[in-house]
Each structure stands twice: as C-alpha cells, then as structure tokens.
Amino acid sequence: MADAAAAVAAFRRVLKPGEEERALGRIATEPQQKRAMEQFKRAVDRAPDVRTALRDPRVLQVITTALGIPEGASQAGLATRVLLSDLSDPKSLANTLTDKRWKSAAETLQLATRGIAGLRDTQLQAGLADGLRRAQWNQNLETEQPGLGDAVLFKERATAVDSNIYAVLGDPIIRRVVTGALGLPPQIAIQSVEAQARAVSARLDIRKLEDPKEVQRLAERYLMNRANENAAQNGANLLARFGFPPGGFSA
Question: pTM score, two decimals?
Fold first, then answer.
C-alpha cells in the first residue's frame, strides 16, 4: 500500500497551483523542444502544399505529438485522410473514426479549408509548441510514476467529455483510466465497443464524470491500482530471479 499512497501523493503534488507552469517553463528551455519546432517550420515553409507537408515526418511528428496522438506519427496515410476530411460531412473519416482524438485534431488545424496556410500560421505554431511541451511533461510524469501522466490528462478532460459511454470509450486516455480504476483488465480494449460499454456501464454511472470530485477519486483509484499491479509484478520478477516458480513450490 505504500507504493499506492506514494502514487496518490505524487498526483496531488502535481495538481498544486503553479506546479504545471514551473514544469512547462523548465521544459521550454530544453534544446530538443526548440529544434523540433524549427524543423517543423522549415519543412512547412518549403512544402508546396499541405499534403506534401503532412508526408514529412518532421511535420507529422510535431502535429500528432502536440495534439495528443503520438502513435499517429507513424500513420501518415491515415493522418492525411483524417486531417483533410470535410468536417461538415457526417460520413467523413474524421466524423466516423471511433478514436475521437483525430476529429479534435482536424477541428484544431482546419487544414481542409486552410491548407498549407494553416500550418504556417504563427498562432497555430505557438499552440503546437505548447502542445509539445505538455506532451513532454506528460512523458516525464509517466517516467516518475506509471499512470501519473494519464491521471493528469484524465482530470483535465473527463469533465468536458459528453456524458455518453461511447464518448468516454472514444478517448483512449479516459477509457484507460476509467477501466483501470474499475479494475477491468487491459484486454478489454480488444473487445467490441459494445462489450466495453456494457462492462463500464455496469460498474459506473457515466454522469458522475460531470463531478470534479468523482473524477479526482477515479484518477486516484486508477493510480492506486496501477501501483499495486506494478508492485505485484516487481515482486514476481524478483522471485523469478532467484529461481522461485510463479505459483510457488508445490508440496
């Protein structure tokens, strides 16, 4: 339980006023942050059109990382199709993907209407730079305490999500924290979305996510469960190092 208590204490510390601002300020001074944005700007300035820009790894890496879809950096084809979708068309890819992070990214960038000019916009670039810093902070938190970055993002996003089970499941971070807090196994993610919805709804009234206090409780329960799971796994690994079988020695 000590590990679980430490995880909750770390979470509460991160939420203290000024903690986020100080962390982001430190990250802003890191050379790789400046280098990533300089490469992005050069690539965008040289690209003849938006499709060419999106095929450039230096551009796509910044966009997907800053907008919370880090795995999207290796999905250039999907990214191009989604980010250039017609958002006014309910059947467009951006509007039909289960993962709603892509639609949010398309809405932020507005590349279908703005084209390459959108990526050259200084205000948008400033927003992407801020997103990069936040992504690095999230990564640092995960290194410090597994699940801590997830918990912080969950607290930021959960109250803004529609009180709809499918909206909850459409955000990987929210889904991971909710299912982890409820003690559902990670393997639930490979089940159909309908099966996931039934499993979560049976254990949680989604409307509770409108309550910041309930969101805090879920985030802390998630961290405690993650800490306990990690402690159990570390214990099992230690026993294995000394030759003890996973289930112990039989009589």
Answer: 0.84
